[in-house]
């Protein structure tokens, strides 16, 4: 079974570990650069991207993470994790950096305070006919999608909320909170085929 990491600086780490283990992976928290060396894929959880950014730089993980992404390690980011994977962030806090990798612009907290959180059934053709029950919490949206990235899902108004680019996958929402397993299974397929 593949050994995959969950970036454990901050955020909903436990939910991802449980879901990945349920899919037959060996999931381990990653807080230090040497822990990154021992995994063949990584999930970046939801939480607060500006905090994850600061902690990843403080703990010397930002550069090793960028190198792993550049080397083609499969990485799946949910919500704050998607923000971390975006090449460009709008509405970041002062000085906020991302790791990058996905040729997209994401806008943080894009739904505003009137719509802090909501749930919706989304069509995701890449995952089959059955819709995905998606939970959005202070979620970002993809406002610009570059040539190298592909949209996997959009809201009814056309706003993009799931993207893929090679071994990178990002969703604005939290499959790990609604019992939805297919995004993680899709990610694990990337891990298995790149091993
Ligand atoms: N608003 C958070 C951020 O900017 C993301 C929220 C989440 O991950 N649920 O990082």
From TrEMBL:
Pfam families, sorted: SNO (PF01174)
Catalytic activity reported: L-glutamine + H2O = L-glutamate + NH4(+); aldehydo-D-ribose 5-phosphate + D-glyceraldehyde 3-phosphate + L-glutamine = pyridoxal 5'-phosphate + L-glutamate + phosphate + 3 H2O + H(+)
Assigned EC number: 4.3.3.6, 3.5.1.2
Positions with a binding annotation for L-glutamine: 47-49, 108, 137-138
SUPFAM superfamilies named in the record: Class I glutamine amidotransferase-like
Entry keyword set: Glutamine amidotransferase, Hydrolase, Lyase, Pyridoxal phosphate
InterPro entries assigned: Class_I_gatase-like (IPR029062), PdxT/SNO (IPR002161), PdxT/SNO_CS (IPR021196)
GO biological process: L-glutamine catabolic process; pyridoxal phosphate biosynthetic process; pyridoxine metabolic process
Active-site feature positions: 79 (nucleophile), 174 (charge relay system), 176 (charge relay system)
Gene Ontology terms: cellular component: cytosol; glutaminase complex
Superkingdom of source: Bacteria
Family: Belongs to the glutaminase PdxT/SNO family.
Subunit (UniProt): In the presence of PdxS, forms a dodecamer of heterodimers. Only shows activity in the heterodimer.
Described function: Catalyzes the hydrolysis of glutamine to glutamate and ammonia as part of the biosynthesis of pyridoxal 5'-phosphate. The resulting ammonia molecule is channeled to the active site of PdxS.
HAMAP family: PdxT (MF_01615)
Name recorded for this polypeptide: Pyridoxal 5'-phosphate synthase subunit PdxT
Name of the coding gene: pdxT
């Amino acid at each position: 079974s593949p050994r995959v990491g969950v970036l454990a600086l901050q955020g909903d780490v436990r939910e991802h570990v449980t879901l990945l283990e349920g899919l037959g992976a060996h999931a381990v928290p990653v807080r230090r650069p040497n822990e990154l060396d021992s995994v063949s894929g990584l999930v970046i959880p939801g939480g607060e991207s500006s905090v994850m950014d600061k902690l990843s730089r403080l703990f010397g993980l930002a550069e090793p993470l960028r190198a792993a992404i550049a080397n083609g390690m499969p990485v799946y980011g949910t919500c704050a994790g998607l923000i971390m994977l975006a090449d460009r962030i709008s509405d970041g806090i002062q000085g906020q950096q991302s790791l990058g990798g996905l040729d997209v612009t994401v806008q943080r907290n894009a739904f505003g305070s009137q719509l802090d959180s909501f749930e919706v059934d989304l069509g995701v053709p890449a995952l089959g006919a059955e819709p995905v029950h998606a939970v959005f919490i202070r979620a970002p949206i993809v406002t610009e999608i570059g040539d190298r990235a592909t949209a996997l899902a959009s809201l009814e108004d056309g706003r993009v909320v799931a993207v893929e680019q090679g071994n990178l996958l990002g969703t604005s929402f939290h499959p790990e909170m609604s019992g939805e397993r297919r995004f993680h299974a899709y990610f694990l397929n990337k891990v298995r085929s790149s091993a």
